[in-house]
Write the structure tokens for this entry.
Amino acid sequence: MHNPDLKKWLPPDRYKHSLRVEKVAVKLAEHYGISKEKAAAAALLHDCGRYTKGEKLVSEAKKLGLKVSEIERFQPKLLHARIGAIIARKVFRVKDKEILSAISKHTVGSENMSMLEKIVYIADHIESDRRFKGVEKIRRHAFSNIDRAIAESTSLMINKLLAKGFPISEQTVRTRNYYLGINNAK
């Protein structure tokens, strides 16, 4: 399911990343018994909003009628998921609401995500070129307890942002707390 239009739409490194995310997402979908086709489509298109960056993302979001938070102004990259869901619908003609939702939530997550949303979220974090301390542990959890993988991944991301002195999306914190709570309850 390699979309030649997407290859033209994204920078080459971003397109290759999307292919790697697709590969992991399909394996996770197979493991968790959900549609491999939906997982492939959502994973392949998850970064279609990354065709531009910086201030251009902010102006694109405004053009599309999206509300832009102060944190998103500081870190425009956070906007690409919501922009990507709109592009997937308008440019790539995706009509499936589950796929569009998985694309829109893949960056900061949300509480109570569907399995497809969880898969795209975590596949983006653990694709084969990701190299960070703790990624192997998250990869293992992804196939045994995806909720725990999300809690671990968001915790690492928050620590990284704190170390850099960056603000943290409130939604990322809510995602972490929700999935951390699920894992403490089990």
Observations:
- The chain has one domain: 4-185.
